[in-house]
Design goal:
It is a single chain. The chain is an alpha+beta fold and about 240 residues long. Helices cover about 30% and strands about 35% of the residues. The chain is built from 4 helices and 7 strands. It has helices at about 1-20, 60-80, 125-135, 150-175; strands at about 30-40, 45-55, 90-100, 105-120, 140-150, 180-195, 225-240. A 4-stranded antiparallel beta sheet has the order 3-4-2-5. Strands 1-7-6 form a 3-stranded antiparallel beta sheet, with helices on one face. The protein starts with a helix and ends with a strand.
Length: about 240
């Protein structure tokens, strides 16, 4: 068993190393090979507010009815902030029995309705009021906020361009050092990856109720964290 675990670990390390190693390019006469990294930082264009609506009652129909009332409260919050309720997306909906585990027979003592909601906001000025209003509701659970970049492809192209310019400049420097001139590009490969997005810690339901209505929201005057996109290019240029 120990030998199997060791083999798996070695395989994992080998694969991880291979994923970070640029492709092998056979050395060729009158060619120069350069690998370079480029970066592009962009302000996020979308705020993602996520939370759960929950309701629990003794009867399933009552739990469903209460959840419907809570959903209507959410729609009113969105309308008050000038947001179309249709922009909110439902991730899942569940209706499950609640058991009394202290009873050996696991008696059903109620039913719980849970649904997840995601809301994308382009107007960051509305983030504070939405998060605050939702967080005040007793039915809101696991309220969280993070910022993303939906137009990630444009940022990747900018990062690739930066990486290629760096690679070309380094190749040109090598050519000059050798008394040669840089020729045309004969080979290139590209890898891109974006920064891992860090989610804000969930806000427990009811925490926002302790805030004064006139107080500024926690996100006021702060700038969303920028999204960083990195590209690595592996190039080969001819030497004149």
């Amino acid at each position: 068993m120990k030998a199997t675990l060791t083999s798996c670990l070695l395989l994992f390390i080998t694969l991880a190393a291979a994923a970070q190693t640029p492709p092998v390019v056979n050395a060729q006469a009158n060619m120069v090979y350069v690998s370079a990294e480029g970066k592009y930082e962009s302000a996020p264009d979308t705020a993602m507010v996520q939370f759960m609506i929950s309701a629990q009652e003794e009867l399933a129909k009552d739990a469903y009815s209460r959840a419907s009332q809570e959903a209507e409260q959410l729609r009113q919050i969105l309308r008050t902030n000038g947001i179309d309720p249709k922009s909110a997306e439902i991730g899942f909906f569940s209706l499950q029995p609640v058991y009394d585990y202290r009873n050996p027979k696991r008696k059903v003592i109620g039913y719980r309705v849970t649904t997840s909601v995601s809301l994308k906001l382009k107007d960051f000025a509305k983030v504070g009021s939405i998060v605050g209003a939702v967080g005040e509701q007793e039915w809101a659970e696991n309220v969280s906020l993070n910022y993303t970049l939906e137009d990630i492809d444009a940022a990747k192209l900018r990062a690739v361009d930066d990486a290629f310019q760096r690679a070309r400049a380094e190749a040109a420097a090598v050519a000059r050092a050798g008394g040669r001139m840089l020729g045309e590009l004969s080979y290139a490969s590209v890898d891109t990856y974006d920064q891992v997005r860090i989610l804000a810690a969930p806000m427990a339901a009811g925490r926002a109720m302790a805030m004064r209505a006139e107080a500024a929201p926690p996100t006021a005057e702060f700038s969303p964290q920028k999204i960083s996109v990195t590209a690595r290019v592996n190039t080969m240029f001819a030497l004149k």
